[in-house]
Each structure stands twice: as structure tokens, then as C-alpha cells.
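Hey everyone, long-time lurker, first post.

I ran two proteins through the pipeline my lab uses and got sequence/structure pairs for each. Pasting them in order. The first:
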Amino acid sequence: MKISEPAKQPLGWVLYDETCGVCSRWVPFWAPTLRRIGYDIASLQSDWIQQRLNVTDDSLMRDVRLLLADGSQVSGADVYRYFMKRIWWAYPFYLLACAPLLRRIFNFAYRTFADNRHRFSRACGLPNRPED
């Protein structure tokens, strides 16, 4: 008889805005890759996330976030760099995203997308879900 292993606690959760069409399409798409390296995904709108983070809705929804198991957080463009550093084939992109001038460009591109993600979703034909 084989004894099953207990479910492992993830190292952290990538938290995304499920009302955004692009976010709700792409973050779940990357979930298998994230799970292979020990991370899971969750919606920023999840009750347990809002209770655990204890952050106002406005600032909570501003950026993609990474909630680590120890309670620390990474947000915005740094979440992308965090994972690029940990996925072997993305590591060259991590190096580029950390180079001084390219870091500023990467941060600007992230901020532009994040601030306009619902517009990008509409332009791409990905429906934005209304907030509850």
C-alpha cells in the first residue's frame, strides 16, 4: 500500500486581479509553471487574501502581488523579476530586467500596463468581469 504525501504548503501565492481580462487569462495560464517551482495562484478578490493582507481595496488592486508563506510580499514589476530569476529559461530576461536602464524601461512598461489593464483587456477582446 502506497502512503500518499501530505499536500505541501506553497512557498507563496501570485495574487492577481480577477476582474481584469488579461490577468484572469494569463496568470492561470502560467499556474502550472508556477506550481512546478512551488508557488500557487489566488485572486486578490479572495476573502482570505483580503483578510490576510489587511490592505485597502484601492492599493490592493493596484499591482500584481506575491504573498510569500512567511507573510512578506513582493509587488509590481518586482514579482516578474522574482520569477524570472527562479525559472531557468527566464533567467536571461531577469538579467536584462535588472540592468539599470532596462530596469527603468521594464518598470515603466509594467506601470503603464497595470494602470491601463482593463483598457488592454477590452482592446484584446478579453472581457473584464465587473467587481462584486
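...and the second, right after it:
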Amino acid sequence: MELKNKYYYFISAFTPEICKKIIDYGTSIIEKNKKDGIDTSATTFGDKHKSVVKNGLPQNDQTTQEITTNNKENNNFYIRDSEVAWLTDSWIYDLVVPYIEKANYYSGWNFQFDAHENFQFTVYHPSGFYGWHTDGGSDVFSAYKRYMNGITDEPLKQNGNFPSGYTKDNSLIGKIRKLSLTINLNLPGEYEGGNLMFDFGQHTNEKQFYECTEIRPQGSMIVFPSFTHHCVTPVTKGTRYSLVLWTLGEPFK
């Protein structure tokens, strides 16, 4: 799917006070989960994250093809290293969803959507990163399926989470991720590295790889189609805080 606008952004949409409130809230949930013995490590499709791939090599910002080429004899690598907490508070949706609607309209996408997942509050400590990936596909094969205990062939993960692509949330079943949103919660200079990058492919008029500096100001947010390849480069100094949301609808036709 070729789009005129690859992404749409808003500068400093959230005030510093709101950003701090979300950071304090998200980090408190992470700390509570740790005390309760709940794993706070961010997960990925295929369990290619640091907490599972023991003594593995970090993918960093290398493409999957580069990793495969450089490590032909070693498939022991991970593509994600961060901590997360899941937020479901109505006041956050009330703040964020209008921006998704504006981005969808003013970008010219006009995607149909009618559901949102939980917010993912993400913490990238020094060396933390998320390698190249997409947040979802665009066809019916990427749609969420209902998980049924004792019937679904795939078992629950060790931490009790559903296998990738499954849910018990009736509002998500049969739907795909269409739009992804990322909000930068940090003040400028609080971290280095940790850049959001896009891969727009080799057959476009633009440069294939693009570093998104538009959302560096605190409280800035970006919305983009969930099938877009993107990554977060390794944080080299400080701690990066972000808030992510996925918006869903029926598969593209």
C-alpha cells in the first residue's frame, strides 16, 4: 500500500505536567509488578526478547537480513530490550484518541477503526532498544483470534500471556492493528540515542531509512500505519519513556 503521507505528528501535544503524571504512574506500576513477581520485560512475536533469549546477541538497529548475514551460524539474538506496564485509564484515552482521529483525517488515510488496545508504557534503560519490526499485518491472517482454554492448540506463554495473535477481548477479535501511536514523554536532553526510525522500503521516492526527530520535544506524538517497518535505536545515555497505543479495525479489503 503506497501512501502520500507516511506518518503524521503533533509537536508538544501533551504538557510537561501530563507527561510527568504518566511517567510517575507507569513506573509505579512497573515497580509494583516487580514486587509482586510479575515479569515486566517487553515481549515480541516469537519470544525474541532479552528475558527469553539468554546470553543472546542484541539486534540493535540492524535489519533482520543484516543479523542473518552477520551471524549465519548463530540464531541466538534478541530484537527487544525494555520494560513495560499496561495502562487502561479512561482519562488517557480521552486525551489521546482525538489526536488519532485528527491524524487519520488530515493525513488522508481515512482508515476505518473502532477499537483500541491497552496503552503500553515503555521504559528503555541504557542500551535498551527495539529492533526492526511492524506492529501488525494488513490482511485477515493478521486478525486477532479468540483464545479458548483447552481448545486453542497453542499453549499460554510461561508468564501466562496469550500466544501472539490471540485475545479474549471481544472488541478485538477479527480485527487488525491499523494505526500506531507513540508519545515521547521525556524532556529534551534526558536521554541520547533511542531514536524512532522508519524503513519506507527501497522502491519509494524518499530515502529508505528515516530518523524521526519531529517527536523529540516533550509531549510530542506520532501516528503511522501499523504495517510500517520501524525501530527504536539503542539508548546510549539516560532513560527513554514513551507511551504507545494501537488502533484496530476490520482487515483492509
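Reply from user beta_strand_b:
Welcome! Quick read of the second one: The longest strand covers residues 240-249. The chain has two domains: 8-133+176-228, 139-175.
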